[in-house]
Amino acid sequence: MNPGRLRRDAAAAVVRARAHGFTLAELAIVLVIVALLVGSLLAPLSTQIDSRNLADTRRALAEIRETILGYAVVNGRLPCPALANVASGAAGAGLEGTRTASGCTNIAGVVPWATLGVAETDAWGRRYSYRVTRAFTKAVPPPDISECPAPLPPLPPLSLPQSAAFALCSPGGMSVLVTAGGGRSRHRCAGRCCLAR
């Protein structure tokens, strides 16, 4: 055999092998570049997820606050916290804690989500903590409506707005600015109930 020919064949085999693949150094450089690109994309994605979770939790907290206030209006007291150590799905989970004549027996726990009909957990899957002052968990007696003044006679129909979301009552004269259908109008109320928007 010819030694020169063997060297040429070996060199040709090395060239062919390089033409069909990448070296280990080239693959490592490509992997580093891909890792940097993926890492640069994950940071903004993580920030967006955290921002969305924070916004969702803030909305849920606002809903819980409004629900607690509504409960207080209807029941004359704040709800007692639910027990934090009762697992989800277990009997009594999320139900308002026990209450005596002096108020709640436990003043700290979690939001009584089952009683109030609100979400159990925040966007990160953790239960909402809830603490209440015992004095505000005592029932308030209903108001004595005999102390309210007799209703005032209604205003003539021409001075009332045609549509309103609420009624304002004033013992004195006042002007109410009403927004309806994109336009504004002023209604004079002469010591009577006045509808406004």
Topology:
Layout: H1 3-19, H2 24-75, E1 99-100, E2 103-104, E3 108-110, H3 113-116, E4 129-131, E5 166-169, E6 173-180, E7 183-190, E8 193-196
Antiparallel strand pairs: 1-2, 3-4, 5-8, 6-7
What do you see in this structure?
It is a single chain. The protein is of the alpha+beta class and 197 residues long. Among the domains are: 51-137, no CATH class; 154-196, no CATH class. The chain is 37% helix and 17% strand. It has helices at 3-19, 24-75, 113-116; strands at residues 99-100, 103-104, 108-110, 129-131, 166-169, 173-180, 183-190, 193-196. A hairpin with a 2-residue loop joins strand 6 and strand 7 (183-190). The protein starts with a helix and ends with a strand.
List the defining traits of the structure above:
197 residues, alpha+beta, two-stranded antiparallel ribbon, two-stranded antiparallel sheet, 3 helices, disordered C terminus
